[in-house]
Amino acid sequence: MNHCRVIVGILLGVMWCGIVSAQSTRVRGKVTDASTGEPIPFASVSFRGTTIGTTADFEGFYSLETRDTVTQLSVTFLSYEPQNVTVTAGAFQALDFALVPIVTEIEKVVVKFDNPAHAIMRKVVRNKSRNNPAEKESYQYNAYTKMELDMANMDRFRNRKLQRNFGFVFEYLDTSALNGRTYLPVMITEATTENYYRRFPRINREVVTASRISGVDDYNFAQFTGGLYVDVNLYDNYINIFEVNVPSPLSDHGRSFYDYFLIDSLNFDGRKTYYLRFHPKSLGSPVFDGEIYIDAQDWALHSAKMRLAKGINVNWLRDLFLENTNQRINDSTWFKKQDKIMADLSLTLSDSSKLISFMAQRQIDYSEVKVNEPIPERIVKLRNNISIDRGVLNDDEGYWSQVRPYALSNREKGIYQMVDSVKNVPMFRNIYDLINTIAVGYQHAGPVEVGFLYTLFSYNDLEGGRVQLNGRTTKDFSEKIRLSAYGAYGFKDHRFKGGGGVEYLFSGQPTRKLTLSGKHDVLQLSAGNSLLAQGNLLSSVFSRGDTKRLILLNQLKAHYEHEWNPGLTNTLSLEWREMLPSKYVPFTRSEGGGLFHIVSTEATLGTRISRDEIIHRKPFTKYHLGSEYPIFNIELTAGLKDIFNSGYEYYRTVFNMEYNFNIPPLGRSRLNTTAGKIFGKVPYPLLKMHEGNATYFYDGGAFSCMDFYEFASDAWAQVMYEHHFRGFFLGRIPLMKKLQWREVALCKVLWGGISQKNNGSLPENGAIVQFPEGMSSVSKPYIEAGFGIENIFRFCRVDAVWRITHREKFDGQKASNFAVNFSMHFDF
Hints:
- By secondary structure, the chain is mostly beta strands.
- It is built from eleven helices and 44 strands.
């Protein structure tokens, strides 16, 4: 289910990338040699009478787009006759050119070539600190952001049923200059924001002053129109976009990835500007192909146009185009003027695919830029990096007409009405509900939703077949209160289980939420936190381990979350648990005899510390989507003896660090470290029961070759490390490159200790409860390592994992020294 949320998150994230171009003049085509038919790289293509132009790529293809009034397109190249052709303003045209060579005879000339583009790029790198906005002490600006999500290839689906339900939309079909595909807008958003940055002490604030959405009427989309966009800074060595690190053409090591060519020197605003083309040296890793314009006085980036090179190992992304334009502020400082992104996403990357794909587009226009001026005190005092002004949802057309950098045509105004009308078509609603049910697992029915789809049936040896039905209220019921409940029945133990809860949302941003919950159910100790660990159909079908040793649990819990700012959150919880033995898991005292139950009451204070973390917020749930910096979690727990019949006093501290970091071009690493200590004498279910994996599915938070109930500790430290090479090695093998498989290496290490008073492996130790058969401490480090192949069919991953230590067998253990795990990942 986590993977379903990931792909939904990716699709939502895709919605926030692009630029609207409904009424612009758009041309695309190919420039070739009339005598040979070969492409002419670097041929100059421009609208006559303007400075709007480009050069053909290495395959001779070009694309151009403008809102200016133009009538002719001109193509020139050295030693070829120039050509001009008339264009139709405000429309798309496909125009190919076959240039005629000019035949001349010259004497043989020997040329010694020292690439002048290299000298230019060296000066650009030396002047980065002066020209890079991120190196300024502070800056502030206003931004207008327009985004659009389009469905491509729609003209191929004009059947009677679609004409009957959606016939009114086909008159808004248009054609993209980038790829020549027809597309239909399905969502458009506009937002105005105030943005503030200070290098030290660090401040990065964004205030959304106005936002409107056509096609979607969800407040959660409104708050992200100003926040979840990709900030492309070409001065960075690598550009992280769609979870892929691509070397920038302005990288310090750009010549390792690109060949540079000086095409021309031009004049922009009275300043000499160098025009360079760059081309990837190889396609073994993600790279761009495009052109850059460099100011000859400041050695600053004036503008750039580039697209992701074809043939690289990136999923779902058939095409990606970036355009960046900069301006001089106060005749001295360079800053962004406009950013554009266009992404073409599809299940298949074939250009001939007839499947519907999506084109996501975004344009940001920057204004009122101020550099190295004090940040207003009201902004400094804001607790959140993203702030939403009251009345942010603004549908006043008069307001948007004033803030837009260009006026909308009548046709573009009609698109807004069209996308709002689509959501009211019954067929659209039915398709949307079906996709949402599969992805989220719940069937929406107004104020309530019913599910959970993947836990409707499962199996284990204690309960036999198990059926479960979940239900919860939606924001249509209340935007402050959410009620939830579930019921389950085991056909073997003939027991009903269930639980429920109530959540009260004091504030959505920052999050201030109180949750009261309770349940009576079975519990698998030492299982991981993955949703595939237990209690669903997939884990039942693909189980390879022990499904017997479950216990019964009664639990009541009060949990309060207080987010001070996006980087600091505290939680406070009070939890009462009663654990009951089962026929497979007896609680046996060290002195003999059975223990009827284990009752504990504990209070926990949690702290989460992060920096620049991306958070996706929904009315009652928020998803942490990671950060470029380490994320720390600290838990302090106290066991409260004699409170609600609790029998144990103890204290537990747990420290965790998550860190995902790039090692370009070798890929991306994921590091998770945890250390903890328990003070006091407790029965083994209250110790740290180290997480094993009893399924063929990979669980990143559990040990693949470890059995349930195998190890317990009251002091422990563990390191879990994965490195994703993203095809760095396999991409150099011809067959593997075509398959686009990617390599993964992993290593997990655990060390634990246990004091004699808590060691229930021997009765003479005097522990409260004896260990189950096969359980022991892990004073000798446990190590497992393996490698895997991911991106099989674009979403499958297979891992082979070996147990390095603790390979000897013990009675009561079903652990394996080798495991094969499968998983699904929807990554770019």
